[in-house]
Amino acid sequence: MDSFGNTSPFASNPLETKADLAKFLVGLLDPLAAHTSPGGARIHLGHTATHYDEAAAQLEGFSRPIWGLSSLLAGGGEYPGTQRWVDGFQNGCDPSHEEFWGGMRHKDQRMVECSAIGFSIAVAREKLWDPLSAEAKANVERWLGGMNDKEMPNTNWLWFRVFANLGLSRAGSSRFDAQRMKADLDHLDTFYIGDGWSRDGPEGVVQLDYYSSSFAIQFAQLAYSKLAAAEDPVRCEEYRNRARQFALDFVHYFDAEGRAIPFGRSLTYRFAMSSFWGALAFADVELPAPLTWGVVKGLQLRNIRYWAKQAGAYSSDGTLTIGYCYPNHNMTENYNSPGSPYWCCKSFVTLSLPETHPFWAAKEEPYPAALLNTTKALKHPFHIATNLGGHFYILSSGQQCSYPVKQGPAKYGKFAYSSAFGYSVPVGSGTLEELGGDNTLALSDDDGETWKCRRDTREARLEGPAPGWLRSMWYPWKDVEVETWLVPPTQAAPLWHLRVHRIRTARALTSAEGGFAIYGQRADGRALEPVDGEAFGTLAEGGAARAASRAGVSGIVTIGGQPRKGTALRTDANTNLMVARAVLPTLMGEHEPSSADIWLVAAVFGLPSVGGEVGAAEGWTAEWEKRPSLPQEIGALLNA
Question: Contact 488/497 with Cβ under 8 angstroms?
Fold first, then answer.
């Protein structure tokens, strides 16, 4: 009965060809008809709210699917429902119509949606712009151009105005502001920090998540480099060069099965995470080895296939849910409306390409063999990416959102983020079970009444011989400081990474350090129970905790410092992004105030199931019995 209520409406699509991808897009567009307003300008998918107004939220539902629709039309495809969006342009920009989107204000959410609209005019003008009446065109031009004299956030948002102006330019509009567009581009280029990477804001911002890649900056640079090559050739070539460099780092955020590593905010955009790979093709970028068009095609399509099979990503009528692998409002932001997830339609950009393009003409290739069983330090995002032993994940230190964001410590402050196990977010503030404290050191100074996790990471740096380790500080209270070392796995113990914490505290503390959260049910669907050996179940003895289920194995062991006790914690439902019922192997400790350093040393084990297998490969306990060794430099600090 596992399939009952757990089958995606798109699971049968092989998603191997351009026609398959177009069919998937049509399958996402068709259900929107029932939720579209009579005038076509608004799409209403639910009643949850955002920090911005309802008209803007319904505009979001209208605009974001246009990323896919315009790509389909640009590539020679047809969609019978196109008229819904043509009508929407006409009525949404008409101040006298009841479905008017509203005029632009400073830092208005409407600005975000201008990006898709500008792109659609640039690539599918004949189908989406030319059918409009002269009066409607004038209204659209006035509405889009209304953002040119408005204040915008000093972030990737500036790209939205660039694309609004690019659309106005392609429409031959007098509202096109070339000077404004150049100024925005010049300022956006100040976000660049080298090796292909751009931060999402000015100097001082340490935020290099999917907005720096597929969601916004890299995607926008590549789309611009294709659409403005004649007018701005030097800048466009620079953007292509950045993409070539960036691709060699970004490939490490994807696994061999197509999953991307969940990290940062806006993850309800789902397979927008892979849109960078499609944008490389759209921009005709010359690929750096070991990337080929067959590899890029595989990275893109495997990711979309994965999401096409996630039943929880879709409502029963085929519309997208708010959440990740299942509906989950705990992990969202205050800007996620029911229409927000359709940002994923950026990943349909390859539909704009002819069948003869090397992306479509190439035979799909697996994840590059040269990148398997490797570990790589990524200096700009303060990540160490590894896939030793078949587990794709990053160790992370040093990032945080540049402004308060819901669940920020979970999205940016955890020690590790896994493509297989995801990460967890708090669902309450009263118990450790509510915390969802995977891959974090949670501290309490009130006997577990409340918990603090790493949020504002300071002094982050890479140290040691390649690939090195991450070292950083955080200060949960004025009289408590925590220094952490994160050491990646080695060939000798490929399924383990190390964490070392030095705590200096003037108050008594309780600590809870979690490993990877893992699916917490037995084969019969009941909760995991204590068991020894390779069978599904949990193990908690002395300073060790472990859980094995159909998702693989997760564990954590104390290997030095103050003694701690292992427990297999059953977290509250809906904390984890990947699975709604999870178990978290955790080490618990009690620490008295001390003028001396308190050391905590843990080894963390993770072995996901692979390729549809149920559970970890037989014989995994041999790997569990291995214990990694501390680098001499860190060991010397403990013994000083």
Answer: yes
Same fold across 18-370 and 373-638:
no
How many angstroms separate the CA atoms of 553 and 538, rounded?
A: 10
Convert the pLDDT of each residue in 479-515 to its tens digit. Answer: 999 999 999 999 999 999 999 999 999 999 999 999 9
- 521 SS3 class: strand
Please name the amino acid found at residue 83: Q
pLDDT of residue 273: 98
The reported pLDDT for the residue numbered 2 is 62
Q: How far apart are CA 347 and CA 359, in angstroms?
A: 13
Q: How far apart are CA 382 and CA 373, in angstroms?
A: 20
Place of tokens 């950045």: 242
Residue ranges covered by each domain of the chain: 18-370, 373-638
CB atoms within 10 A of CB 632: 8
148, 116 Cβ separation under 8 angstroms: no
Q: Is the Cβ–Cβ distance between 342 and 112 less than 8 Å? A: no
Return the ∠ at Cα 249 (arms to 243 and 251), rounded to 5°: 90
Looking at the structure, give the CATH architecture of the domain made up of residues 18-370.
Alpha/alpha barrel (1.50)
Q: Which CATH architecture has domain 373-638?
A: Distorted Sandwich (2.70)
pLDDT by residue (tens digit) across 206-232? Answer: 899 999 999 999 999 999 999 999 999
pLDDT at residue 1 in the model = 44
Which residue is it, tokens 């191997």? 16
Extract the runs of DSSP E, i.e. beta strands, from 392-549: 393-396, 416-418, 441-444, 458-463, 469-477, 480-487, 496-505, 509-514, 518-519, 537-541, 544-549
pLDDT, tens digit, 9 for 90 and up, residues 249-292: 999 999 999 999 999 999 999 999 999 999 999 999 999 999 99
Q: Tell me how far apart the alpha carbons of residues 442 and 451 are, in angstroms, rounded to a whole number.
A: 6
Amino acid at position 2, single letter: D
User: Who's near 534: CB < 8 A, 6+ residues apart?
Assistant: 548, 616, 618, 619, 620, 621
Residue 518 pairs in a beta bridge with 583
For 325-379, give the secondary structure using H, E and C: CCECCCCCCCCCCCCHHHHHHHHHHHHHCCCCCHHHHCCCCCCCHHHCCCEEEEC
Q: How far apart are CA 443 and CA 474, in angstroms?
A: 12
Exposed / middle / buried, residue 525 (Cβ in 10 Å: 0-12, 13-18, 19+):
exposed
Lowest model confidence (mean pLDDT) among 2-11, 167-176, 219-228:
2-11
Both tokens of residue 270? 């789902």
Residues 6+ apart with CB under 8 A from 419: 254, 255, 257, 259, 260, 261, 262, 392, 393
Average pLDDT, the chain: 96
Parallel, antiparallel or unpaired: strands 565-570 and 441-444: unpaired
Which residues of 439-495 form beta strands (DSSP E)? 441-444, 458-463, 469-477, 480-487
Instruction: Please tell me the pTM assigned to this model.
Output: 0.97
Alpha-carbon span 77 to 68, nearest angstrom: 11
pLDDT beyond 80 at 5: no
pLDDT tens figures, 555-600: 999 999 999 999 999 999 999 999 999 999 999 999 999 889 999 9
